[in-house]
Structure formats: structure tokens, C-alpha cells
Amino acid sequence: MRPGTPDRDRSKAEASMRITLERSNLLKSLNHVHRVVERRNTIPILSNVLLRAEGASLAMKATDLDLEITEATPAMVEQAGATTVPAHLLYEIVRKLPDGAEVLLATTPDGATMTVASGRSKFSLQCLSEADFPDLTAGNFTHSFKLKASALKMLIDRTQFAISTEETRYYLNGIFLHTIESAGALKLRAVATDGHRLARADVEAPSGSEGMPGIIIPRKTVGELQKLVDNPELIVTVEVSDAKIRLTIGEIVMTSKLIDGTFPDYQRVIPQANDKEMRVDCQSFAQAVDRVSTISSERGRAVKLALNEGHLTLTVNNPDSGSATEEVAVGYDNDPMEIGFNAKYLLDITAQLSGDDAIFLLADAGSPTLVRDTAGDDALYVLMPMRV
């Protein structure tokens, strides 16, 4: 800037952000952050993504006031600056640009619009001031620890299907993450339940997690996190307080409010004395359940399991359309028994098992059943029976 330029001109120049970056880098980061933005917003700025160019990178941030994701990506910054533009619109524009393209982002001196230019394509987007963009990252975190992305992914994958969608019991609308003493070792444990089924998974508690508060991570945060931990080799830094969690995965920082509630005493519903063991090939069992449940008009209709020594008969009755039965060979040498389960819940649980066999530990037709994996990972499932 020339000496003697008035302050007014200087502020105008600073408002003009101008950067060039590769479409692939821009798209990858936008893909991570734009999903947080709700499609319908009463507060206009929450529809936008914050873009801040400085040094040799472009930092992006999106939030819905409960969850915030930021990510930095390499960029050629000709003029540093910051602005906010509609998140889904920018994502769609960049997605439709050709592979290998370079993208120019440049704001007008008054900061009212931003040009997106690539090749012969040129778009002009309305901007809102970055000064009005909300910040979720305030506050101190009491505990901090690191764990492998693969361990975090296992905890989420094994439990997230059991998160409740019932809004009245809001404290079940997430995964309960806490440390607990188990078999003489400290474990980091994830639990989810909707009252009909419960999923529990453990990993060795990482250093720094000792004494952390038990926290309930909301369903939306869990869903986004599941997509971000796709590289098993990455190390994730986890910071928690009573009210928030922050996860750093490579260049991505995710901050989320926690569910303010008390998770129920899940230990009470895990049966301890189920002595009837059924061992079954996981794939054969899941395919048989899937086939017989075809006769049912709703996926949730009960499948009756009739157990006899060495074999299992699956039955579904639908008064409107007929019935279906299928036999499966099982390892079972106890008294014959019959028990009913929701077909969808059985399929959800068997989909989580990585071993060849599933182990069902049963008591009677009216009591919860325990399901374990033979693969040796620290996960177990509890399933409430249905009347059949």
C-alpha cells in the first residue's frame, strides 16, 4: 500500500480477500464442514460458511450453534481477509467444477459479494460479515487425551445404531462416553440404548482420560464424527468438559455441546445369569432373519426363535399376507425354548459383529438376551424380547 493512503482505503483493501486454491482441496474441506449447516435457518448467518484466508491456508468454519467444524486447507493467499458465504451453495458450485481445476475466491472491496471463478465459470455470491459469525469454542476443557482413530471408530460403529430417536427421553439421544474399571483395568466405554436394545463397547482407557466426566455426545455429532474418522492411522485428540467436547482429527477441529442430562444406570439391564448359550454362524443367521421377515409388512414385526438341540427355527406370521419359516443349524444343548425379537434389531446387531459366529446368552422368553461377538473385541449387546 502506498504511503499516505487514507485509513478508509486501507480498510477497503483489507476487506478484499483474494486467494487461489485447488478444487480438490477446497471440495474436501467444504464436504467436511458444510454438512453441519442446517438446510433451513431462521438466523441467516447460520446458513453460511466462514472463510478466513491468512498465511498459506484457507480456514473454513460452519456451525449450527450446537456443533462446529473448522478445517484449514492449503491456498495461495494474494490478499488475506475473511467473509461468510452460503455454505451449501458454495459446496454445490465447487462440486460441479471439473477435476483438477483451480478456483479463485475474491471479495469485492465493500465485502458485499464474493466471486468464485474457475476456467470459464464465474459466480457471484452474497456475503455476510464475518464479525457476526458465532463462535462455539469458548471455555476450558478439564481433560485431554489422545487415541487412535480406529479405536474411536470402533466405539462409535459398535454403538451408534442403538441411539434413541425419541425426543422425550433426550438423554438417550446420544452415546454415553465414560471411563470405568472393568476386569482390573481402566476402560474408555461407549454405551447407547433406546430402551429396546443396548450396545456397549470398550477400549483401553488412554492416558489423560482418568477421572473425566461421563458425557453424552449428541446423535448429530456422532454421525459427523463417524464420517471424519475414516483414516484408521490418524491420532485423534479429545478434549472434554462438563458441557463440551472438542476433537482434533488432522486439520479438522470439531467442537460440540453435550447433552445436558443424566444417562440411566445401564449396568442394571445387562443380565448376569443368562445360562442358555446359542452359538450361530452370523452370516447364515442374518440372511435367514432377513428372508423370513420379508413376509412381514413392517420390518419391526417379531421373529419367533424356537430353539432345540442343534437347530433353530425362525418363524414370522403376518395375518394379512401369510407366514414364513426357516431352519438354521446352531450350537445349543439346553432345554427347548421359544423367544421373539424385533427383526430389524436382530439385523442391526448382527451387522456390528465382526466374528464368524454370534453368541446368544438367554434366560427365558420374557428376559433380556445378551449377544456377544466371537471376534474378541470388547463389545456386547442386550436385546429385549417381544411377545410372539
What structural class do you assign from the helix and strand content?
alpha+beta
Q: Outline, from the CA principal axes?
A: elongated
Find the count of extended strands (DSSP E, 2+ residues): 25
The spatial strand order of the largest sheet comes to: 14-11-12-13-25-24-23-18-21-20-19-22
Separation, N- and C-terminal Cα atoms: 81 Å
- How large is the count of helical segments? 7
Low-pLDDT runs of 5+ residues are 1-15
> What is the typical, i.e. mean, pLDDT?
92
Sum up the structure in keywords.
single chain; 388 residues; alpha+beta; 12-stranded antiparallel sheet; 8-stranded antiparallel sheet; 7 helices; 25 strands; 18% helix; elongated; disordered N terminus
Description:
The model is unreliable at 1-15 (pLDDT under 50). The chain has helices at 7-15, 23-34, 87-96, 149-159, 219-228, 282-292, 343-350; strands at residues 18-22, 48-54, 57-63, 67-74, 76-79, 81-86, 102-107, 113-118, 121-126, 143-148, 174-182, 185-193, 197-204, 215-218, 235-240, 244-249, 252-257, 276-281, 302-308, 311-318, 322-331, 337-342, 357-362, 369-373, 379-383. Helix 2 (23-34) packs antiparallel against helix 3 (87-96). The protein has 388 residues and is of the alpha+beta class. Strands 14-11-12-13-25-24-23-18-21-20-19-22 form a twelve-stranded antiparallel β-sheet. The chain has an eight-stranded antiparallel β-sheet with strand order 6-2-3-4-17-16-15-10. A five-stranded antiparallel β-sheet has the order 5-1-7-8-9. Strand 20 and strand 21 (322-331) form a beta hairpin. 36% of the residues are buried.
